[in-house]
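User: Okay, second chain of the day. Same drill as before: sequence in, structure tokens out.
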Amino acid sequence: MPISQTTAGGLLLCRTEPLVARPAAHLLRERLLLAPAGEWSALVPEGKPWIGGEESVAEVLSGWGSALATGANWPVLSLWWEGGHTGFALASGFRRPAVYEWDAAGRPVGEADAMRVLAVRLGLDPVLDLEDLERLTRPDDAADGAARLLGLIALLARAGLALPAGLAPGEPADRLREAARVAPGTETVEWSGWRDAVRAELDVLEGGPLGPWVRGPKARRLGAAQLAAGAPLLLWAAHRRSPGWLTAGALLVTHGALSLAYDRARTPR
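Assistant: Same drill. Structure tokens below.
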């Protein structure tokens, strides 16, 4: 289905179960729909934060994806479409995101190694799957931007992704939201204050599979690194009035402070 020049939307795909993705999603301070998607979780914005703002859909979704992946042991794939253009950004911890996009005619506009990075970080087959991914970077007169994203989704089924019915890249944001609402297991995630957000994060730390990262030298180093990266990012994003990256900076600072506080509280004296 061709993407209209006026259609804009996006979704976030977290490679983890909803129970684990939920606390990080809370800290985005946005109203979202969280739906199971096979071995993944899908997050669909309830609103349209890119309308009337200075940031594009790509910038907003990429900022949110980086925020979600910060300090997590699972990657986040941001998919977006706007004005016929489509693209993705894969965020994974502190590593540089892998970004790729296509214009309205499906012509590739991206970094040459983005598909290789995508395959490596998602654990795809380095030969067969990578070959299929690289086909998405080659000229194809029969494939527009929407077809490129749908091809990517089809390939990610090999990594356990199974999007609910109707949750397809290229759909208008309103239609995407309605499809997410009726998907089995969908829940609404919305900001309810820092106290509840921190409590949810601690619940995951107490019962989650983070192991040595929760306490000890690794936790302290990670927490310090998050604070060191988050503080200047907050200042930069505030100066630029960038809500996506402002969220990423806030989440870095929150994760860092929480990690250090949790380690201090749980380490025997």
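The first helix runs from residue 18 to 26.

User: Thanks, on to the next one.
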